[in-house]
Fold each of these.
Amino acid sequence: MTDRVQEYDYPASVALSIADEDPLAYDAAARFLNAGPFDVVSLQHEFGIFGGPDGSHILRLVEHLRAPLVTTLHTILAAPSIMQRNVIDRIGRASSRVVVMAAKGARLLAGNYNVDPRKIDVIPHGIPDVKIVPSERMKERLGFAGRTVILTFGLLSPNKGIEVMIDAMPMILRSCPDALYIVLGATHPNLLRDNGEPYRDSLAARAKALGVADSILFINQFVERAELLDFIAMCDVYVTPYLSEMQLTSGTLAYSFGLGRPIVSTPYWHAAELLADGRGVLVPFGDYEATGRAVSGLLADPNRRNVISRRSYQEGRAMTWQRTAELYLDLFFDAVGRKVRATESRADLRLSAA
């Protein structure tokens, strides 16, 4: 996809791009896929990716495909507008299989939309398969030796609830004076384009007013995956203080869970499911006192942190990219089964991702 404000230097493996607001570009993409040697099309759907009202331009592509379509829905709304429901219903009809990344998503999709429940599969958000390393070793490598590190990562925007953690820091510092809260990630490009940096500036001003500015580090940049994994590996507690429950998937949550980090989170849909039964600590939305108590409690109890760490790391092995890839490949084969010879090797299956 190429959005309306900038183009991208795609690698040679990208054979075609779609200008998001150009309806004819979706028609051309459908013709390209139909003419090519593709057995299955994998669609990663998020409303904001595609042009037209509620991303409806993508319907021009999916409803004209000849190859089977396997769609992964990254967002499923509990109370969609008429247009949003129509888009998802039509994508569902056009798809051989529909993938969601949490059981909550499957329930929402089956109950609130006209998508055949028999088409729905749950495949968790994938994570890298890496070994746990001692956080102190990674702190030394990254220059944070001697600090107790709390981390939040992701594109910065007001729905992330960073102000709640800032408000919790005075309580945390009373019991853990060497605590450092790192907010890692660039401002969301859409927010930056439309409004600039007032939200980030307001967070810095809030920290200064509370007297905790020296214990909060804002790293305003995008980091590559290897560097992100290093930051996650060094943190003592990972926090996702999001303000709304209506978030079905969080890649940062999945990564931190899979790397065995103790997590404090508000109970948005993905977190409520992933961290249930003691796999993490859930706190009410917008409650800085509960957040401060939860983080302080974990920092003061290394044995509890170790128990949570070992459990989340072990359970995360079912979410590795290797495992999710196998599950997707099973779906792709199921979608094209009637077209693929029984003796054909999986390695020979040609995949197209739109």
Amino acid sequence: LFEPLAAGWADLEASLLGPLVHVPRHPLALARFGLSALQSAAGFARRRFRGEPAQALFAGLASHSILPLESLGSASFGLVLGTTGHAVGWPLPRGGSQRIADALASYLRSLGGEIRTGAPVESLDELSAPTILCDVTPRQLLRLAGERLPERYRRSLERFRYGPGVFKLDWALSGPIPWTAPECGRAGTVHLGGTLEEIAASERSPARGETSERPFVLLAQPTLFDASRAPEGRHTAWAYCHVPNGSSADLTDAVERQVERFAPGFRERVLARSVFAPADLERRNRNLVGGDIAGGSNELRQLVARPVLRPVPYATPLEGVYLCSASTPPGGGVHGMCGYLAARAALRAGGGRGRRRHRRRSA
């Protein structure tokens, strides 16, 4: 399944990590991918694989869609994540994800950029810059722009749907997680869910406004590969599961029971834990509406029209104002493509012309 996709990743990458509505550079490769990607993950896994392990493996990959696995298009997430795992890996940033932000900030400052924090913007009227890139979801853009937005665009943003939230735990551990399966002790990311049927049942629950007694758990154990993140001999891990948007349920016990199920003795190694329910996550970051870490539901309609159906989805009807959050294509993930593509759109619309004139004068 993944060998031809990984081998052809260079042809697919630009098409998959950008707006779905576009003229593809490699239409045949994209069409072949699309025939599988538009299917439901559960149906695709059952048709493609006979054995339980492979079906469950694909279900875990596809559950990053944060959709019921019976949803059309959910197979695309399993295919993309599996392909990138083979083509480029799933790397961990040494020193923690803060290092990514630090590196970007350092580079911006080296170019003469200025970063101002602790200065909340309540309205776009407060800003005088000719180009404004908003790393916000539709709900915040509506608050910032208000009546300045045309009515039709405003109504489209109001219809934008948010997806399930997440319940997250961080652990300080006295040692590595004691997995029954030794392979799990060599993995940066582990999907805990059992069979395809169990994972699918868990992922249906949030869409119904329910929490699962056996939640599908996405777990990372970075200190297996990056000793700088914990004192010598100690370890850290984090995990989350999907819950209804805005859920106030405490799933600490359910998540830890699921880890203990595959790693007996895990709880004995927990020195301390931090708990983040959806409301806690949203307080730390307004973009995480109801704990939705994907910037909006990944249902098929919103994969195509994200956040609305426009030739350039990053551009708003307001001159010089662009959206660059995970509510734009290609959606959530540590890829930076939403900001990159929004910046490219802004340059094409104005900044790029200024740079070209400057180059011609210099020549």
Amino acid sequence: MSDKGSFTNNSNRREFIKTSAVAGVAASGYFATAGVQATESTSPNEKVQVACIGIGGKGKSDCTDASRYGEIVALCDIDSNYLGGLAQQMKVDNTFVDYRELFDKMGDKIDAVTVSTPDHTHAVISVAAMKAGKAVYCQKPLTRTIYEARRMGEIAKEMGVATQMGNQFTAFNPMRKAAHQIKAGNLGTVNEVHLWTNRPVWPQGEARPPAKPAPSNVDWVQWIGPAPLRDYGEGYHPFKWRGWWDFGTGALGDMACHTANLPFMALNMRDPVSVEAETAGHNGDSYPVWSRIKFEFPELDGRAAFTMFWYDGGQKPDPSLFADFPETVENNAVPTGSGCVIVGDKAKMYAAGDYAQQGIVIQGADEMDVDYPKSRGHNREWFDAIKDSSKPAMSNFPNYSGPLTETILLGNLAVWKGGKVEWDAKTMTPLNDPSLMKIVKPDYQNGYELM
């Protein structure tokens, strides 16, 4: 791990970026009237300098999105094929395999970092960047473990850096409107939330693949990072890592940061007191083929207690839950492959699709007309926050994506146990099974640590 002293801020330029951008935004009136375009400077000295870490798959689109608002000055990936292709496409000269070398050599030349690596490396990379005062955009789920999610939020707050998680539909205005309708009482008192997904779409519940040499384009040791060493096998890179406990978070971690977004925003859905799982069983190495998980949330700040149910691997709620809804939502059969139903004592809301993007309907009440904070776009929120620290992105680490990730990953404690876990959120302690602390807080391997 590079020390903090070798990864310094270019503070004068960053303050110039912030001051100039705040003036432009204030002149545009954006914060008074949503949807008005803020003035952006065209001077290259005022552009946010961005390093992209993990540039395959979603990482490539994250890098492309960042290039719309900032200047990409460095790329990092353990796969040389990705590096060569994107560096040529984006005309970036600085490429790295090890993020620590990137930080050591270019720490004074970057303002912000995107992190789009496998889940098990999110925290070590993001924390190193935040400790050096860099803004961080990290893909979902924010971390592989509950402890890491808590620390990511704490460190972001301590360092005062602009942060955002890659659950991009947090900026979907119809979803924001629906959340504020629920807040306003459109459904009455909510007592149940049901979430389901078509994941996993990768192998789970199976034995490790046979060991084989890593491809010449893949630095396997760098890929492993802080996880326990194991031999390379077919499928870990670039996609099937999600189904392994050492690297990913299974179907729940992969998709609940999307499907749970609406109820989290609407109900301040954090700090459950217990979670209970029924699964197909697992071998302690690969996640189960399917899971059903029940979360119990207590009353919080005037919001009533309620129960959340999660279903994956082909599991779905009882068909009676959908009886009152129209047979199709936005031309999709009900129930859709993924979605969310929120049940109140007056009405129910159905949000179809992973992101509520396939239609949102209310059954049992007319839609309320509500005010809600409108977004000009997910990535734009992060760059606006970089330029004006008083305007954090909705899905920032301390207030939103950290608590959301904590809540979701609690389900994996119950999946590991195959039963019920009583939870003390304040101390991050599984009250009825201390052995689960190894799932709450990981032991870092191979010389890595969470700074």
Amino acid sequence: MTRLRNAEGIPLVRVTGDPFEAGYRHGAARAGALRAFLADDLCRLNRLLPAPDSPVSLDSLRPMLSAYEAEIRAATPDLAEEIRGLGEGAGIGHEPALLLQLRREIMGYQKIPTMGDCTTYVRSGVLAQTVDLNGDLDDQIAVLDVTRNGRRALVLSFGGLLGYLGVNGDGLAIGLNLVLGGDWRPGLPPYLAIRHLLDTASGVDHAIEILRGLRLASSRSLILCDATRAACVEILGDELREVDATEHTNHFLHPGFAARDELNVFARNSSLLRLKACRSGLSELSPDAGVEDHFGLLSAPPVCVADTGDIRSERTVAAVVLVPGRGELHLRPGDPSRSVTRTFTL
């Protein structure tokens, strides 16, 4: 296994200082990549959205960006300033920096057949997951080493995102899954909510308490883990439910949410298959399994979703193993069955 603090081939960005300065450092470090991403069919959105004859533009998205920016600033003013700093540091301006945070909300529900969108689990103090995304985003991976109010965190990022998943110095790890339901509306994007939790929460119970006070923009499932407890929560609109499970794919598990699940039949079949395969693989995993054992599970189909060559289809663009007790983020970029492990440590 490759063990490098600044893992070879993966940008490590140190995000320190006041919120604006932190964002500026991130933007300056990734300026060329972010400008190229924005120039690529507007972060590839116009190759993913269902109306290629009516492409979206920054002008057409401006009212949406403004509505979301107001919600982000009200809920997490530090992150709003960090986004402003990101835009200045990268030389792209404020609205494009907002756009980078809102790509998933702009895409909304994708009513097309799909085969993946993350498999996540907790076992024996380890949180592990695949990252299944469309848009060929494995070329946009970076790891952020964030310090905010004296608390450090390692955060996986794609294309300028301030948050996605990660682990903080208090021993809290957070992973996520897409679930589809309810009305997606201006609010705090879940990726930013996860970053906010890593910046502010000391453990699972504290994180859930903070999460209950946030108005999220879109539905998600989060799995959280610390030294003493693991929890899975599903968010649908303004409702949050804790689920008796430590594995999740992309369909709602809580009985109160299942009837409102909007996942299409193809994606649901994939989600059920991946959940079954995940649980089967975990039943064969030793309680003292190491990082590479977890990557073995994450690298095997159907948990690992293959590339079909269609940019619109989700595929596994990374796999991550978080060890919160040791402050470690282990990453295999791209197809995890074909890449080596990079290790980042707090």
